[in-house]
């Protein structure tokens, strides 16, 4: 099959390399507003370049990968759907929930599948945790802990356009909590602060946050996020049940040092970036997309799924701003 890629920045170029190595992908057609980025992809991955998103769609692509700036996600998703081309789009669907709702409403008239990029759904550890919860081997859950700590903050321009740490970073934890537990979030309470990069504070955002989520069965989920983690990229989840407990991300590349005398775990080189930590998950995610394109499976992460994680982020942002608990129902608007 032929896959089009819109956007060849950090994640777009990574996706191009991953797709180019898949047996199901015969060729790539790429576009980026920076011609040099497109030409680089042509050289590195043997891709054909196009001079606009419309030209990519006109090149007869079977599927479309949107890895462009968040602001243009809505128009590119809808352009692919209008052309009858299955779309994979990096999260989020849009910069604001109002825009995301408009995308969902517009897609209601199409039967073209859209897959949103929540890569933790394709990580072996998270998948094993989900299976353990669904099998009942942990018993009823009482506590979930989910952590995303980045080694360094993203550039100022990215922060200014990201929509904030809850919508950009913690949203992965929110989706993972929903997907692994099979439960919905009822209420949130969030706190945050700034002790690092000044441009994050200037953008009206926090660089370190914590949130307590109450799930619809009473389980508590504790979410920890930071833009500053000097030892590396730390993504983990703990699930504590009445029968057993389980952890994701507890391997030799965990970016923590033990203070216990004689302890040798973890012994490996710490993960230093999300593309390092989740390389296999990204490959599995894009392999799934080729199956969506081929019509052999439905979208494994729909726009509706992304909206649910987005409402949790919206509730956390309001909770942080107003220093109070917020129910998801308070911020949710009907599609």
What this model shows, in words?
With 335 residues, the chain is of the alpha/beta class. It folds into 2 domains: 2-112, Rossmann fold (3-Layer(aba) Sandwich), CATH 3.40.50.720; 121-273 and 309-331, Dihydrodipicolinate Reductase, domain 2 (2-Layer Sandwich), CATH 3.30.360. It is 40% helix and 21% strand. The chain has helices spanning 10-20, 35-45, 53-58, 73-82, 97-107, 124-135, 156-162, 165-181, 198-202, 274-277, 279-294, 303-322, 328-331; strands at residues 2-6, 27-31, 48-49, 63-66, 87-90, 114-117, 141-149, 185-193, 208-215, 220-226, 234-241, 245-248, 326-327. The strands form 2 sheets. The protein has a 7-stranded mixed beta sheet with strand order 12-11-7-10-9-8-13. It has a 6-stranded parallel beta sheet with strand order 3-2-1-4-5-6, with helices on both faces. Helix 1 links the parallel strand 1 and strand 2. Helix 5 packs antiparallel against helix 12 (303-322), helix 6 (124-135) packs across helix 8 and helix 8 (165-181) crosses helix 12 (303-322). The protein is globular and about 55 Å long. The model has no long low-confidence stretch (mean pLDDT 95).
């Amino acid at each position: 099959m032929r896959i089009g890629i819109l956007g060849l920045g950090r994640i777009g170029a990574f996706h191009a390399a991953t797709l180019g190595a898949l047996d199901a992908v015969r060729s790539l057609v790429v576009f980026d507003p920076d011609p040099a980025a497109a030409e680089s992809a042509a050289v590195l991955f043997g891709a054909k370049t196009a001079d606009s998103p419309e030209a990519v769609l006109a090149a007869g692509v079977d599927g479309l990968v949107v890895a462009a700036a968040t602001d243009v996600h809505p128009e590119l998703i809808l352009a692919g759907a209008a052309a009858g081309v299955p779309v994979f789009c990096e999260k989020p669907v849009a910069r604001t929930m109002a825009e995301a709702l408009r995308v969902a409403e517009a897609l209601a008239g199409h039967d073209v599948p859209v897959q949103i990029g929540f890569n933790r759904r394709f990580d072996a550890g998270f998948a094993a945790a989900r299976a353990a919860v669904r099998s009942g081997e942990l018993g009823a859950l009482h506590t979930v802990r989910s952590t995303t700590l980045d080694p360094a903050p993203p550039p100022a321009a990215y922060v200014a356009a990201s929509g904030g740490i809850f919508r950009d970073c913690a949203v992965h934890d929110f989706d993972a909590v929903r997907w692994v537990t099979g439960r919905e979030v009822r209420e949130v309470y969030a706190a945050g602060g700034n002790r690092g990069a000044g441009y994050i504070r200037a953008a009206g955002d926090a660089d370190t946050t914590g949130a307590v989520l109450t799930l619809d069965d009473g389980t508590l989920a504790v979410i920890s996020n930071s833009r500053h983690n000097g030892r590396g990229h730390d993504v983990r989840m703990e699930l504590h049940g009445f029968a057993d407990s389980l952890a994701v991300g507890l391997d030799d590349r965990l970016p923590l040092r033990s203070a216990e005398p004689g302890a040798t775990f973890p012994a490996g080189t710490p993960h230093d970036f999300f593309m390092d930590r989740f390389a296999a998950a990204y490959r599995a995610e894009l392999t799934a997309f080729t199956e969506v394109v081929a019509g052999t499976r439905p979208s494994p992460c729909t726009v509706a799924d992304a909206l649910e994680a987005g409402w949790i982020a919206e509730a956390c942002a309001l909770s942080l701003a107003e220093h109070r608990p917020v129910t998801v129902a308070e911020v949710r608007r009907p599609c």
